[in-house]
């Protein structure tokens, strides 16, 4: 009789650097650093920062700068991008920037890559200029990055200094099945954005696992699921705190994003039925409740998806309540195992 071995489920943070009402980006960054320091002590694996542009509700327009800020204020936490929107940048510049960070903070830097603009199309045009077709180049650009990071590129005419020969894990981010095929073909770990695009989660995971090709970076599929989490002492308090998240999503749906708003007692009167339905669809994998409720729902989710890692985003208005939510989540996830898999090489 054989027994299956298990490893603890990894758990991490995605920080969208939300700007709360009546605060500034300076406040946001200060809170991000404090959050990173707190979750480091709680056993979180990594702390990723997103790339968004032209949004009054989000301060993460320059994730590379923020990665350095967070890494410099922590000591063991892995810090990275969730993600850098590669079509907005040239592979060489990304390689040099991340190579600089990895030289400053060796063994602690992750590079998550996405193909979306992280903004509206007009803003994307302003960012990309003549490279507006960069989305189609996404697979090639990832491979170019891998080349710049390789020691074998030392004889090339164009080199990434620093960056060359450094161990900087690359993750493919996605919210559709297209990214699943790409991550599988390249043999790279895959992070799915189920915190805002839950509809294709299971289809994407099946595609990724069935088509995965082992690579020098990864021997077996590795999946990160990003989900919304709002945890509190009671279900009622968590639901109240979650109204800030729902207002945030409502602004996205209406095309009028606004700074993160304080919680309200009820969403009634703030949205129409169709808008409520759209928000609830986006929040299909939002874990909202007490510690007991989060544990029950998270165990079911992990059992169904068989993910290797949970990456939580918690858009909670109060910084103290946000930190406490991550504390409760850590207590839950420490007790949930994952099926034993091969880990990242390096």
From TrEMBL:
InterPro entries hit by this protein: Bact_Lucif_Oxidored, CmoO-like, Luciferase-like_dom, Luciferase-like_sf
Residue span, Luciferase-like domain: 11-256
Residues passing through the membrane, by range: none
Entry superkingdom: Bacteria
NCBIfam families for this protein: oxido_grp_1
Entry's family note: To bacterial alkanal monooxygenase alpha and beta chains.
Protein's recorded name: LLM class flavin-dependent oxidoreductase
């Amino acid at each position: 009789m054989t027994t299956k071995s298990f490893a603890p489920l990894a758990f991490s943070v995605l920080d969208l650097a939300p700007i709360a009402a009546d605060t500034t980006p300076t406040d946001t960054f200060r809170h991000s650093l404090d959050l990173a320091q707190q979750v480091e002590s709680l056993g979180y694996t990594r702390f990723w920062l997103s790339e968004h542009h032209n949004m009054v509700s989000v301060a993460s327009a320059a994730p590379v700068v923020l990665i350095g800020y967070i890494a410099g204020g922590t000591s063991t936490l892995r810090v990275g991008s969730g993600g850098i929107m590669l079509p907005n940048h040239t592979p060489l510049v990304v390689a040099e920037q991340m190579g600089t960070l990895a030289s400053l903070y060796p063994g602690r830097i992750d590079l998550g890559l996405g193909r979306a603009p992280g903004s509206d199309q007009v803003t994307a045009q302003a960012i990309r200029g003549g490279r507006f077709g960069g989305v189609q180049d996404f697979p090639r650009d990832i491979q170019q990055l891998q080349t710049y990071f390789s020691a074998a590129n030392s004889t090339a005419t164009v080199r990434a200094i620093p960056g060359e020969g450094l161990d900087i894990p690359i993750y493919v981010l996605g919210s559709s099945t297209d990214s699943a095929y790409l991550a599988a073909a390249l043999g790279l770990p895959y992070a799915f954005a189920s915190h805002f695009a839950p509809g294709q989660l299971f289809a994407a995971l099946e595609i990724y696992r069935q088509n995965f090709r082992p690579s020098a970076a990864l021997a077996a599929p590795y999946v990160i699921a990003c989900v919304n989490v709002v945890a509190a002492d009671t279900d009622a308090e968590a639901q109240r705190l979650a109204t800030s998240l729902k207002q945030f999503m409502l602004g996205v749906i209406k095309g009028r994003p606004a700074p993160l708003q304080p919680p309200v007692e009820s969403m009634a009167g703030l949205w129409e039925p169709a808008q409520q339905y759209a928000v609830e669809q986006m929040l299909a994998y939002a874990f909202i409740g007490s510690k007991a409720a989060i544990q029950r729902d998270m165990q079911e989710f992990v059992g169904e998806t068989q993910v290797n890692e949970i990456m939580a985003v918690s858009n909670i208005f109060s910084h103290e309540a946000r930190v406490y939510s991550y504390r409760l989540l850590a207590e839950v996830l420490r007790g949930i195992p994952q099926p034993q898999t091969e880990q990242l090489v390096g």
